[in-house]
Amino acid sequence: MSAAVLTPDAVRAIDGRLERAGLLDPAMEIAGLAVARAVQERWPSGRVLLLAGGGANGGDALVAARHLLAAGREVTVLARPATHPLTRLNRRRLRAVGGEVRPLTPATLGRAARDAAVLVDGLLGTGFRPPLRDDLARVIGALNAARTRDLNVLAIDLPSGLDATRADVPGAAVHADVTVTFIGPKPAQLFGDAAAQCGEVRTVPLPVPAAWIQDVQVAARPDDATLGALLPVRTASAHKGTAGRVWIVGGHPGTVGAPALAGLGALRAGAGLVTVHSAADVPLVTPELMAQRHADLRTFLTSTGLTGTGARPDAVAIGMGLGPEAPALAREVLDWEIPTVLDADALQPDLCGYGHDRCVWTPHPGEAARVLGVPTPEVTRDPLSAARALQDRLGGVVVLKGGPSVVARAGDLSVARGGHPGMASAGMGDTLCGILAALLAQGLDPWDAARAGVRLHARAGEIAAVRFGYGLGATDVAHDLGRAWADLRAAPLTGVYAGV
Ligand SMILES: NC(=O)C1=CN([C@@H]2O[C@H](COP(=O)(O)OP(=O)(O)OC[C@H]3O[C@@H](n4cnc5c(N)ncnc54)[C@H](OP(=O)(O)O)[C@@H]3O)[C@@H](O)[C@H]2O)[C@@H](O)CC1
Ligand SMILES: Nc1ncnc2c1ncn2[C@@H]1O[C@H](COP(=O)(O)OP(=O)(O)O)[C@@H](O)[C@H]1O
């Protein structure tokens, strides 16, 4: 099963269809009820202060207030003038059951917050466009000041002041403990500083036909069952030559660890034979790894490479610590048109146009910015658009790494789940490259290898964090790949092989 990532345009398109079908009112009722339930479950006692803006986000807050009142909670409702017809309707419905609605100002908010245990932020949702008007900025300032005095904050759909499409925080914005969002997450809830302001994000489905969501989703977010099913299992008759032959091309004096880590990642992701080809001496981090030092790596790749007597690789990973020769060497390998992962020094603007359908490019935001010729914050502010632009230039499949990573192929985006900041350490990306090459060598197509490989890497990071604690290294993560594999396939550790 997949959860859709939506933008405000997508939400508006769905709203339009709901409205034409006469179903927007029940959708708002379900949204508001879900908010009331979240409050009840998380903070079952104390007065609830609800803030309602003029749009549909405010309408959700007014519905929530009605349900909380019906459940016997003490509520205070402060509202801006209603502009959305359903918000006006729900104001009347609230009053009809005895709810009082008073005007919202920084002063009324400050006073009401003093005897509230929970604040529900229904000021601005997906309809907000920065810059924030001063009157609202003052209200948000008063809200955040009240939160520092022990008030719990639940945001409806999106903390007010965040732009749903952006990963940065454009100005004054609410800090929430919990965000209850509808149908699917928005980019602001997944990426960067914006996501950090959302607190715990709960997604509530609304009764919207799946086809409508499919029509407008900007990215998928496949779950572990979907991705685990993509992972290969060795047949009973497998031998090392059929289990995937990987070449790692990387390393340069001073950066010889990178290809070694990629090799370790490839082995632990199930490749049968892994060889590191380098112009430098690469440390054998594990004796199963083979290493060949070449006085002239380019000559090896052009003359010996694929045409040599040795068995040809099923997949190549190139670029890790490879140094300034990387683009020229990568071009040689790209000419072979075999499954290829390109990372680090092989991620250069002059390789745009050289990609093919069997490539996977793995930039982090800095490398992505270099390829696109833009400042790095432009990439991190909107990783979905950046991933799309990178794929457009480089071809094949792009993994824009981060927390979380975005995988792109022509016309398709997928946002990864899991991983954690403990993975922000040198060498983690090298291990990922090895994993991706191993999956390609075992027969996965680049799109499946990238989506499943990114999740496998992140899952191994989650398991390694439990085992090793703080200060995680890339080798720790590589060692837990076998456990992560079993976990994602929902198989016991021995059951990852056919016939066991
Ligand atoms: N399909 C779904 O998922 C469903 C979603 N639903 C809900 O609908 C919400 C979207 O509602 P929406 O479109 O009415 O917009 P919303 O977020 O309330 O913002 C409009 C308000 O913002 C204000 N405003 C704007 N810019 C501003 C600025 N710069 N500075 C200051 N103010 C500014 C603007 O003020 P105005 O300009 O009108 O004075 C107006 O009052 C969505 O988040 C979800 O909660 C559910 O109800 C049902 C199904
Ligand atoms: N905060 C985070 N949350 C989840 N994953 C992260 C986080 N920080 C880094 N990672 C993951 O760790 C890896 C880091 O890769 P990269 O920056 O290329 O490292 P290196 O070049 O040192 O090998 C990526 O796969 C990235 O997705």
TrEMBL record:
Binding-site positions, K(+): 57, 121, 160
InterPro entries linked to this entry: CARKD, Nnr, Ribokinase-like, YjeF_N_dom, YjeF_N_dom_sf
CDD domains: YXKO-related (cd01171)
GO molecular function, one term: metal ion binding
Binding site for AMP: 401-405, 429
GO terms under biological process: metabolite repair; nicotinamide nucleotide metabolic process
PROSITE patterns found in the cross-reference section: YJEF_C_3, YJEF_N
Protein function: Catalyzes the dehydration of the S-form of NAD(P)HX at the expense of ADP, which is converted to AMP. Together with NAD(P)HX epimerase, which catalyzes the epimerization of the S- and R-forms, the enzyme allows the repair of both epimers of NAD(P)HX, a damaged form of NAD(P)H that is a result of enzymatic or heat-dependent hydration.
Protein name as annotated: Bifunctional NAD(P)H-hydrate repair enzyme
Organism: Deinococcus soli (ex Cha et al. 2016)
Gene: nnrE
